[in-house]
Amino acid sequence: MFNQHITNIIYNYSYLQIYLVVIAYFYFLYFGLAPVFLYVCKQLEKQDLLQKIIKQSIPKTQLLFEIKHSIQSIFIFGLSALLLIYLKRQGAILLLPNSFINIMVGIIILTIWNEIHFFIVHRVMHLPFFMKRVHKIHHHSKVPTVFAVYSFHWFEALLLSTVPLTIAVFIPLSAVAIFLYPLVSILLNFAGHCNYRFGNGKGPSWRLFGSKHNAHHFKFANHYGFASGIMDKLHKLIIPKINQRKK
Ligand SMILES: [Zn+2]
Ligand SMILES: [Zn+2]
């Protein structure tokens, strides 16, 4: 029944219907979950489990800027989904059955791929050309909020939206894994933009989860990775070796 419904959406819905479903889904994730995530952070702060990273009040103009650009980004995200469906209908993408294991493995693959994909896009965005014209929109939020998660220039939103598209053409995934991935991604994104951290910012790396991206907004440099610091560590390891070989 559930699988039939998914097959029906993939093959029988018009592109306009699919576009509307996708943007409604992203609006639900953004406007539905951001206030809940913020509420939970505030409750945990009251119980001394979370601490605000930068104790600064956020002007209303910043919130409106973040929401306006996030609304725009969601319209762009919908376009990527259309291309994904188009490629599936053309037979360029294979989908796996929606078994529990396929869904879990699919979400893990997408999360790992996002770490690489985001690092590359983000590092390019910090080149002076893109920083000045594109990425400055996202860095408008010097102290980020949960509403900054999709606050991008349209071009950056387009690049970042290609995570499922760029892996699904090479590795078959289940449709439900692709559908659930934005939920996992936005939760990780909230953690990276909420301006809250566990404790005083010291201690084991799991306690610092999300704090690196918050710090990136404030300092503009370093920590180009998404949820983990793995890509930053790899980058620091590899680049000096390449430079050494050139000498
Ligand atoms: Zn950010
Ligand atoms: Zn940045």
Overall form = globular
The percentage helix is 55-70%
Strand percentage lies at under 5%
- Outline the biggest β-sheet: 2 strands, antiparallel
Question: What is the residue-mean pLDDT, rounded to a whole number?
Answer: 91
Q: Cofactors and ligands present?
A: zinc ion
What can you tell me about this protein's structure?
With 247 residues, this protein is mainly α. The chain has one domain. It contains ten helices and four strands, in the order ααβαβααααβαβαα. It has helices spanning 2-12, 15-46, 60-89, 100-125, 128-135, 154-160, 163-168, 175-193, 211-219, 230-246, and strands at residues 50-52, 95-96, 173-174, 196-198. The strands form two sheets. It has a two-stranded antiparallel ribbon. It has a two-stranded parallel ribbon with strand order 2-3. α2 (15-46) crosses α3 (60-89), α2 runs parallel beside α8 (175-193) and α4 (100-125) packs across α8. The radius of gyration is 19 Å and the shape is globular. The structure holds zinc ion (2 copies). One zinc ion (ZN) binds next to loops.
